[in-house]
Amino acid sequence: MSRESNAEPPPEAELPGALPPALRAELIAFRRDLHMHPELGNQEFRTTAALKGRLERAGLRPRVLPLGTGLMCDILPGGPDAPVSWDGVRPMLALRADIDALPIPDTKTVSYRSTVPGRAHACGHDVHTTVVLGTGLVLAELAALGRLPYPVRLIFQPAEEVLPGGAAEAIAAGVLDGVGRILALHCDPRVDVGRIGLRTGAITSACDRLEVTLGGAGGHTARPHLTTDLVTAAAKVATEVPALLARRVDARSGLSVTWGRLETGHAPNVIPQHAELAGTVRCLDLAAWREAADLVHAAVDEVATMHRAKSQITYVRGVPPVINEPAATELLRDAMVTRRGPQSVEGTEQSLGGEDFSWYLEHVPGAMARLGVRAIGDTARRDLHCGDFDVDEGAIEVGVELFTAAALLDGHRA
């Protein structure tokens, strides 16, 4: 789908105005319902049913993905005479939302707190989902009026939080068939509501999972020379592997190993025979990420061998960096500026977080924006993946305006 990023935007009158109060209230209620009933990756059956029912009430024809969670839904131009399926000719703009929650408890004291123990929408996926749903409802009305210039596909993807992410299975199910460009957003608690953060190029990092098992002869702590001193070996792997990697790749690639778990031993006077380490490998650079697995294997084996430990490595390839295509990034910028003015867009840094939206960008151009969810005047430091994470719900309307304007601008530039 070829677009000129500097094309003249349509007149403001061609864009829909603010959300009607009834729709705004409905979307907030929908988000709160999702927040109260979080579901983990590939278990999002209730969420899928709720989305399917609402889209069908709007006259659309959503299709549940083969595994039974997640769905896709096409909105076609042409008003009452629109075909019932994509014509196979005009490329579509896709809008993607992730619908799964996290396995952590909700610690907030609010009326819409999670009702599922140990589960929470602590990353804002309930907001992402509601924004794409709201955009679909607005675009469906515009299509019925003959005001949608280009077909749009809504993608509600399961299992974003499960490495290597549900995007690969969604792609295999055909969600990108006929798509020429794809857009997404992600909540950012460091950006004020009413604003978005944009960056051309890499906006997230690659993220893989690493598990290391060490083994060796144990024994009494009085005679460590007769054993494989496995506690020391595990400590050396934990400290020296990251240091080795820092000297074997370009520092600008940002390749790093961070451990989240180290377990070994049960008694103070017994050298154990087994140790386990687990962590993540993150990388800012796509080329370095492609070499990371071999580099990590070599570094772990080298350190383990030095301390007479046998090593077994499980390296789970996760996701590459999200690399925002310039034209798609400009489309998001133009859409936001058209609706909210130039002050509503700010630059953003590359994050070390991973996002499986990157898998879509291996196939089609696209971009992700950071959606401001911080209440105006809030000075507290907040982060994602925390039990007290919450948003200013005004961000939902902002996200719907952004995606709606992007869909109309994208068609205008055809």
Report on this structure.
- The chain is an alpha/beta fold and about 425 residues long.
- The chain has two domains: about 10-205 and about 320-410, Zn peptidases (Aminopeptidase, 3-Layer(aba) Sandwich), CATH 3.40.630.10; about 205-320, Alpha-Beta Plaits, CATH 3.30.70.
- It contains nine helices and 16 strands.
- The strands form four sheets. It has an eight-stranded mixed β-sheet with strand order 1-2-4-3-5-16-6-15, with helices on one face.
- Strand 1 and strand 2 (about 70-75) form a beta hairpin.
- The longest helix has 21 residues, at about 285-305.
- Mean pLDDT is about 95; it is low at about 1-5.
Keywords for this entry:
Aminopeptidase, 8-stranded mixed sheet, 414 residues, 9 helices, 16 strands, alpha/beta
Q: Assign a percent range to the helix content.
A: 25-40%
Question: Which segments are poorly predicted (pLDDT under 50) over 5 or more consecutive residues?
Answer: 1-7
The computed structural class is alpha/beta
Largest sheet: 8 strands, mixed
Q: What's the helix-strand series?
A: HHEEEHEHEEEEEHEEEHEEHEHEH
Number of strands: 16
**How many domain units?**
2
Q: Any idea of the CATH topology of the largest domain?
A: Aminopeptidase
Could you tell me how far the N terminus lies from the C terminus, measured between alpha carbons in angstroms? 8 Å
Strand content: 15-25%
Mean pLDDT: 93
Could you state the CATH homologous superfamily of the largest domain? Zn peptidases
For the CA atoms, what is the radius of gyration?
24 Å
Which strand order do you get reading across the main beta sheet?
1-2-4-3-5-16-6-15
Shape: elongated
CATH architecture of the largest domain: 3-Layer(aba) Sandwich
